[in-house]
Amino acid sequence: MTSFTALIMCGPAGPSTVEQHMAAARRRAACDAYLALAPLADVAQIIVAAPVEERTQIPLPESGKIVWEVDPPGQAFHFGERLAGIVRRHHLNRLLYLGAGSMPLLPQADLASAVSALAGAGEGAAITNNVHSADWVALSSANSIADVAHRLERDNMLAWVLREEKGFSVTSLPPAAGTRLDIDTPFDLQVLALHPRTRPNLRQFLAGLRPELNLQRLQQAVQILGTAGSRVTMIGRVSASAWSMLELKSRCWTRVFSEERGMAANRRQATGQVFSLVADHIDRVGEKEFVARLARTSDLVLFDTRVYLAHHRCWPSAADRFASDLGRPDLIRDDRLRRLTEAAVAAPIPIILGGHNVVSGGLYALLEIAESV
Predict the structure, then answer these.
(1) Backbone torsions φ then ψ of 335, nearest 5 degrees
(2) Domain coordinates of the chain in residue numbers?
(3) Considering the entire predicted model, what is its pTM?
(4) How do residues 328-342 score in pLDDT, each as one tens digit?
(5) Which residues contact 34 (CB under 8 A, 6 or more apart)?
(6) Beta carbons of 28 and 8 less than 8 angstroms apart
(7) Rounded (5°) CA angle 323-225-183
């Protein structure tokens, strides 16, 4: 058995109020992740990599297993190059990489099991929460990252690239709220504010943020998911497992429009190849008519809008995307996204807008919330 190094990577906060809230939530989640990792015997040290201004904002202890890695100031951030540099500098072999907000609901037993399994595994092995869109990856042979660093614009490509280009044997944990929900958009904060298993540091922060989270539509969604015979429509990167889980855990009728799974990991988004039939249809009939048709056929819509945005090859700012997720069209500068958001907010049914988690980890979490009420 060989000990592990855990690496928690924290990004900078954006300028808008909602981006500041997202960054603050990820800091609290990083603290919760540290508290989950620190007792594990297989974890020898925990490296926290962050911009210099974030170090003073993350309330972690200055003792124990922590090693700080301050991002080089004045350099453009590239995930793969940064990760490879840390691996090289600290001579890492067995590594658990995680984004700061990557495991807010992951059970402690599942985390310990993943770390223990990789501590005793051979070379070229990895365990991840989702091979198509990884939020955390435990791997042996971390030095292999150097060969593919240039391919890793984002962390969610890590497991996929290691499997496809380095021949790693990658195990993806079963889909569940704990393995698929990370903090990526305001929708995730909304879900975590309602979920009974959210960890203490993050829970305390979200309790103070509730007035800003506009939870009414999500609370309606929970009620609808718990009502037999409800009609639920899912749009975006919907996996077969998410669809199956919805049908297993609820007594709802489902309508699914699944498109562009893995668009980030397989670089279709980066190379401008994303094509969405749903987005094409919206362009033809208009946002208001599209939403009106949804309202006639659905009681609840879960809409992963990032496929719609990638289809148009004009990526709005994080502030715009997050304002859309919160149902605040008045804060959106991008005309197309504002029109869609206005139509969704005006709909007579709850239309939940967000990123991939809307039809993945967030859906699993909503179903767990519905079971708990």
Answers:
(1) -60, -45
(2) 4-173, 184-372
(3) 0.91
(4) 999 999 999 999 999
(5) 8, 46, 48, 60, 66
(6) no
(7) 40
